[in-house]
Amino acid sequence: MKMMTLKNKNGMMMKVCDVGGIVPVLTAPDVRGRYEDVVLGAPGVLPNANYFGCLVGRVGNRIDKGMFKLGGKTYRLTKNNKVNTLHGGTVGFDSRVWAMRKFEAPDGPAVELTYFSPNGEEGFPGNLFTRVVYTLTHDDAWRIEYLAVTDEATPVNLTQHVYFNLTGCKRDILEHELQLFCGSYTPSDKHLIPTGEVATVAGTPLDFRKPMAIGARIGEKFPALKNAGGGYDNNFVIDRKQPSSAGQKTCATLVRCARVREPESGRVMECWTTEPCVQLYTSNMMSPMTGKKGVRYGKHFGLCLETQQPPNAINCPILGNTVLRPGETYRQTTEYRFSAE
Q1: CA distance 137 to 106
Q2: Residue 53 phi, psi (nearest 5)
Q3: Is-catalytic flag, 306?
Q4: How far is residue 197's CA from residue 113's CA, in Å, rounded to a whole number?
Q5: Mean pLDDT confidence for 98-118
Q6: How far apart are CA 120 and CA 307, in angstroms?
Q7: How confident is the model at residue 318, as a pLDDT?
Q8: What is the mean pLDDT of residues 10-37?
Q9: Which candidate in 161, 270, 275, 335 is catalytic?
Q10: Statement: residue 251 has pLDDT above 70
């Protein structure tokens, strides 16, 4: 296992592991200018049953019954989430060893991660080459740029499964104030597979269009919260009719999908992406465990904002398109921007 360290001119620091592209450490400033680690992780980085800070693929999130049809052929994947395939299967991108190269990008230190996924890995068709670049910018942002190419049609839906805790990982995230720039979501069944509908968040505890403490409505009796184990594990559709900024090395534009503020430290994190959706997960299924520095983690101790295409889109194309074909290039960019107020 290899580790690389990035540090920007302000003193913000990130560590990157070659196994799964895991980010076990990421610091961010509070209102006093103090940098503290704001991501969860296992004491020794591995094992990583909770997907702490890792890249997930080929297909992030769930694929219904671990199967799909493409080009007239049925593909059966390894199942690792009851009857479904989750985050690429039993040995997904989160567990693979990535080649790493450190370099200096125009706006901050960076690490390039590359991985070649052979035809048939975890049941997926085609040879897939993936390149991901992490940049720690000098204005305190973590930029993630994804690229993938294939020699055979295959589903691709990459994301990062980092758990944030803006307290400096001292207590749970229920008092974090969350705003989602999302007016709708995709309802799902008891196995968290989307039903194919797109519904408004209005009048539901999933309405974060105005800033709201994550814990304010997390205990309400609402199907989407019950199915997710007593909290949020929902795919939101991002409102793209809002101010945007040019994507880095992409032809798409970045739009803001989320803003999180931790009241005591004053830390603020904004998530910007070129993707159409974002999955909000509040660690509902995390069993009590000892994390980094001996801190006890448990339910609702971390917050994930996984930018993505909708879950199970390969089986429900009305929700989105995850098929990558030969001659095409998969690209997406996500940024987590940090500040304090």
Answers
A1: 9
A2: 55, 25
A3: yes
A4: 36
A5: 97
A6: 26
A7: 82
A8: 97
A9: 161
A10: no
Overall average pLDDT of the 60-82 stretch: 95
Domain boundaries, the chain: 3-340
Q: What are the tens digits of pLDDT across the range 213-233?
A: 999 999 999 999 999 999 999
| pLDDT tens for each residue of 253-288 | 899 999 999 999 999 999 999 999 999 999 999 999
| DSSP code of residue 8 | -
Alpha carbon distances (Å) from 202 to 31, 256, 264? 33, 19, 29
Residue 109 reports pLDDT greater than 80: yes
> Which among 112, 54, 118, 114 has a CA at the least distance from the CA of 87?
54
Q: Which helix (H) or strand (E) holds 280?
A: strand 277-281
pLDDT number for residue 242: 59
CB-CB contact of 68 with 315 (8 Å):
yes
Range 296-301, long-range pairs (CB < 8 A, 24+ positions): 297/40, 298/172, 299/172, 299/230, 299/231, 300/172, 300/173, 300/174, 300/214, 300/215, 300/218, 300/231, 301/40, 301/163, 301/165, 301/169, 301/171, 301/172, 301/173
Contact status, residue 134 vs residue 14, Cβ threshold 8 Å? yes
Which of 121, 270, 275, 306 is catalytic? The answer is 306
Residues found in the chain: 341
Q: Are 208 and 232 in contact (CB under 8 A)?
A: no
Is 138 noted as a catalytic residue in this protein?
Answer: no
The DSSP result for 146-200, as a single string, is EEEEESS-EE-B-EE-PPB-TTTSSS-STT-EEEE--SEE--B-TTS-B-S--EE
Give the pLDDT of residue 250.
40
Q: What mean pLDDT value characterizes the chain?
A: 94
List the alpha helices (DSSP H) in the chain. Answer: 223-227
Q: What is the pTM of this model?
A: 0.95
Tell me if 59 sits within 8 A of 161, measured CB to CB: no
For tokens 């989105």, what's the residue?
320
Q: What's the burial of 35, exposed, middle or buried (CB within 10 Å: 0-12/13-18/19+)? A: middle
- Out of 2.60.40.10, 2.170.120.30, 3.30.460.40, 2.70.98.10, select the CATH number for domain 3-340: 2.70.98.10
44 against 58, higher pLDDT: 58
Tokens at residue 180, please? 């989602």
